[in-house]
Amino acid sequence: MTAATPFEGKVACVTGASAGLGRAIAEALVGAGAKVVAVARRRSDWCDGTNAVALSADLSDPGRAKGVARAVSDPFGPPDILVNAAGVNTREAADEVTLEGWTLTQNLNLAMPFFLAQALVPGMRDRGWGRIVNFASLQSLRAFPGGIAYGASKGGIVQLTRAMAEAWSRHGITANALAPGFFPTELTGPVFDDPERAARNAAQTCIGRNGRLPDIVGPALFLCSAASDYVTGQVLPVDGGFTAK
C-alpha cells in the first residue's frame, strides 16, 4: 500500500451506492485504490467496470443475503470491506404505522446489514482482516416525529454494531457505525424541501450548517482503513455537533 492508494488490493461492497451518502463513500473508496461493488435497488450509473461494478439487488429481503453475498464476490473476489448504507424511512406517524412499513424498515435497515455481514465474514476471517461499517442515525439517540419505525431500526443498529464487534473483532474484523446528521439525500428530501426546517436543523449544529456529501468521506475512509485497527464497536456521529447541543 502507498499513501496515494491506501486501499490498493482491497475489495469493498457498498450498499445504497446509487446515490447520496452511499455513492459518496463508494466513489471515495475507488479514488483511494479499492475495487468496489456498488449495490442498490437501481443500478449505479457512475461505475466504470474496471474498479467499480454495479449490482442491482433487492435488499429488503434478508432471505436473499447469501445470494447477494455470492454475487458481490464474483467481480473482484470476497470483499474485505462492507459498508451498509442502504436504508428507508417510511415517515409513518406512530398511530399510522403499518405492518408492511414496519417490516420493510426493519428488514432493510437492520436485518439485511446483519445477514449480509454474516455471509461475508467467513472470507474476512480467512484473511484475518475486515471492516464492517453500518449506518446509524440521529434517530439512534433521539425521537423525531414520524420516525418510530426508522428510529427503532437505527437504535437496533447501535447494538448490532456492538454485538458484531464482540463476535468478530478477535478475528481482525472491526465493526463500527456512522451516525450522519442532516445531509441532502433522497432519504432526507422531505426535510430539505422545507427551507425553514432545514434552517432550524442547521442552527442546531455547533458548526452552523447542514452536512454536505464530502463531509461523510473522511470518517468513512477512516473506519474502512487500517488507521482504525484498534477502533471497534463504536458509533461516530457525523452531525456537525447536532447531538452536542
TrEMBL record:
Keyword Phosphoprotein: no
Superkingdom per UniProt: Bacteria
Entry coiled-coil feature ranges: none
Residues annotated as transmembrane: none
Pfam families: adh_short_C2
Keywords tagged on the record: Oxidoreductase
Family: Belongs to the short-chain dehydrogenases/reductases (SDR) family.
Identification of the protein by name: SDR family oxidoreductase
